[in-house]
Structure formats: C-alpha cells, structure tokens
C-alpha cells in the first residue's frame, strides 16, 4: 500500500504555518482537529459572497444554497448513503438529544428497554438514561474495569428476553480508545430485534465511516473533529428515521434530513463541510486512489490508519514500559485509535500545564467521560492525561512528546 505523503498532508492545514499554533506539537486532536485549507477557504467564501438567506432568486442566495446541497451530497456519497440520510446540527450532543426525544415518543407506552454502556462519552449515555423518566428500563452494558473493554457476550445476555429496542454504544471511547466491532455488535442487536445508535465522534477523525458496512441504524460524529467546522453530523437509516416521531417543523416531516432538525442549520458551516470532501478527494488524487467517492474514502481511510498506527506505536511502547503510570486501553496500536489516556500518581492537570510550557499541546481531565473513569477506578479529581494524534501527526512530534514526558514525569 502507498504510504501517506505527510508533507502533502500537512501542507493542506494552515495551522502548521501559523506563528501561534506551529510552536507546539499538537496532541489535543481528540478535543478538535485542525481545519483543512479547503474548509477554511469555503467558509471564508461563504461569509464573503454568500452570507444571505440561501436558495433565494438571486445569485448569492442561489450559490449559497447550492454549496449547502453540495456538502450534503458529497459527504453522503463518501459514506455510501443517500443525501437525505445526512442531517446537520450544532453539535453531536445536540443531535443525540434531539434523536432521544424522537425515541422517547417511539417507546412511549411500551414495556421496552434500552441498552447503554459505561464506556461512552456522556453525550451518548446521559440522554438515553433519562428515558427512564418515561418508564423505559435502562440496562448498562459494562466494561471490564481492568481493561475498559466491552464483551459482546455480555450484550447477548442483556438482549436475551427480547425487550430491548435500542442499543447505544461508541465506535471507540474518547478515553479507552479501543475500536469496537460495530458491524458485529449491530448484528447481535439486529438479531434480537433492536436498533443501534453509534457515537462515532472519537473514531471518525481516523476515517469517515462506510455506513452500510457498519450495519448500524444511526451514526453520529462531529465535523470539528474531522477537519471541518463546528457542526454535528448524523447519518440515519431511512426506515428508522421515518419511523421515529419527527422533531422538526410539521411541514418538513417528509424530508428525512429536516425531520430531526428542529432549528435551521448554520448555513455557512454546512456549506464549508464540503471542504472535508475536497480534502479526502485531494488525498485520494495525490496518492493515486480512484473509483467512486466511497472507494476513494475507503482508500484514504486505510492510508490514515496505517500512518496513525505507525506513529503512535512508539508512544504506547514508551508508556507501557513505565511503572509509574497506568496506560488505559489496548497496548497495541492496531486495536485502538491514536487517543492515549494515562492515569498518573497525582492530578493530571499540572502535568499537561508543564507539557504546554515545553512545547506540547495537550490537556487533562475527565473529557465528559466520567462514567468510564469511574468504572476504571480513576478518581475524578485526578482525571487523566490525554495525548491524541491523527494522521497528520509526525514521528518527529511523537519523539518531542516522549522527550517532554520523560523530563516532566
């Protein structure tokens, strides 16, 4: 397989030429990635030439509406779905909240159960747990407290009586980072008559999903973590999306992409999301990857994962060899996203601050993953140090990180 051309990749990101940002090696990607040049250019153009009510009968409005439609259509093609299946919202937390209101009505009056995990970010856990207010039984699929892993056999046990209608779980945790087998889990749920909602926020930065291959009913992720603007993106199975009570205006109920969007989207940011497709296509063209949009996306996904796996392996080896910290999640790079959390003997925040003074951009805390940290036995007042890479992270930056960690720890 062709190796990722890192010089070409980094040239697509203005941040690496910024006098403010380029001074530090950036390891806070799980909190939000750098935006690619194509997104920045589209956002600037929209605010300069199209910042009017879109779709109106005059040039700026028509151009703005066309760019919004382009973003939805091109992202859909990359992920193997119809444009109507792609909904935009202000964030993934907001999209999940709106979806949960639809599920609340869908399950009302039934003796139903919903499965959640304690591996999730709170956005894909708290809203589902609040369905207990409607009499829905909440069943928790619990992680192994030593490894953080989810065991599919435990899910089968939770599904055995046939009352579960929905299973909500992450593609990977923003703390544990182990990549869950979404297709296997979705298949287990489907056999038991349950739908699936997948939080892809922590995985999508490492490769946009092939929705149909995953087999889930809903997949959610955040554009600001996939090199784009601050938008949440929700992909819906069409039959499930139309079965759920709509949450948008009554006159928009026939349009799936409007059905679960109660407020108008941010026009400029939706249009700028087409820049993410531009970026994937630029990588595909530069590396000689052809085919339809889904095939090009899959090829770029493989390039990204190969680069990330190679780059993060030395950091995992370094941390696993230390006896003064706890490396959370798998030790092998192939089984995880390159988001690396460690529990330190004391509070993690002062360490992240000292790393910042040494040219490493990272952070510490609970990262809205309070439940997994509780399950792992990590005190909330300590938190974890999180070091997160993506495909544009260089081997040299990892060397700088390890040297800084060695000095600080």
Automatic annotation (TrEMBL):
Residues 26-235, 302-401 form the Aminotransferase class V domain. The keyword Secreted does not apply. Keywords: Pyridoxal phosphate, Transferase. It holds the Pfam family Aminotran_5. The keyword RNA-binding does not apply. Coiled coil: none annotated. Its EC number is 2.8.1.7. InterPro entries: Aminotrans_V_dom, PyrdxlP-dep_Trfase, PyrdxlP-dep_Trfase_major, PyrdxlP-dep_Trfase_small. GO terms for molecular function: cysteine desulfurase activity. This is Cysteine desulfurase.
């Amino acid at each position: 397989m062709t190796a990722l051309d890192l010089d070409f990749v980094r040239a697509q990101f203005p941040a690496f030429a910024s006098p403010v940002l380029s001074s530090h090696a950036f390891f806070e990607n799980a909190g939000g990635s750098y935006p690619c040049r194509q997104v920045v250019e589209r956002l600037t153009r929209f605010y300069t030439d199209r910042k009017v009510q879109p779709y109106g009968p005059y040039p700026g409005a028509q151009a703005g509406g066309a760019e919004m439609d382009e973003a939805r259509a091109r992202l859909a093609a990359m992920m193997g779905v119809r444009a109507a299946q792609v909904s935009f919202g202000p964030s993934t937390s907001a999209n999940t909240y709106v979806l949960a209101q639809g599920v609340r009505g869908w399950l009302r009056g039934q003796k139903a159960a919903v499965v959640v995990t304690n591996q999730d970010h709170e956005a894909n856990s708290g809203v589902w747990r609040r369905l207990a207010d409607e009499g829905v039984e909440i069943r928790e699929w619990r992680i192994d407290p030593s490894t953080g892993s989810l065991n599919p056999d435990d899910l089968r046990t939770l599904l055995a009586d046939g009352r579960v209608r929905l299973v909500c779980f992450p593609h990977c945790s923003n703390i544990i980072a182990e990549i869950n087998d979404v297709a296997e889990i979705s298949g287990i749920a489907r056999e038991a008559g349950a739908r699936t909602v997948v939080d892809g926020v922590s995985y999508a930065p490492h490769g946009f999903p092939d929705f149909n291959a995953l087999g889930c009913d809903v997949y959610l992720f955040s554009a600001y973590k996939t090199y784009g603007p601050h938008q949440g993106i929700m992909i819906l199975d069409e039959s499930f999306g139309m079965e759920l009570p709509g949450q948008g205006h009554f006159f928009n109920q026939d349009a799936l992409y409007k059905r679960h969007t109660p407020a108008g989207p941010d026009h400029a940011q939706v249009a700028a999301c087409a820049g993410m497709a531009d970026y994937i296509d630029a990588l595909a063209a530069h590396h000689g990857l052809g085919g339809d949009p889904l095939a090009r996306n899959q090829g770029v996904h493989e390039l990204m994962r190969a680069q990330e796996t190679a780059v993060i392996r030395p950091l995992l080896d370094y941390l696993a060899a230390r006896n003064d910290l706890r490396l959370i999640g798998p030790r092998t790079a192939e089984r995880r996203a390159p988001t690396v959390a460690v529990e330190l003997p004391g509070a993690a925040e002062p360490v992240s601050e000292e790393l910042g003074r040494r040219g490493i951009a990272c952070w510490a805390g609970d990262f809205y993953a309070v439940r997994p940290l509780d399950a792992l036995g990590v005190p909330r007042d300590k938190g974890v140090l999180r070091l997160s890479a993506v495909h544009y992270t260089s081997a040299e930056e990892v060397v700088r990180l390890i040297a800084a960690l060695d000095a600080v720890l």
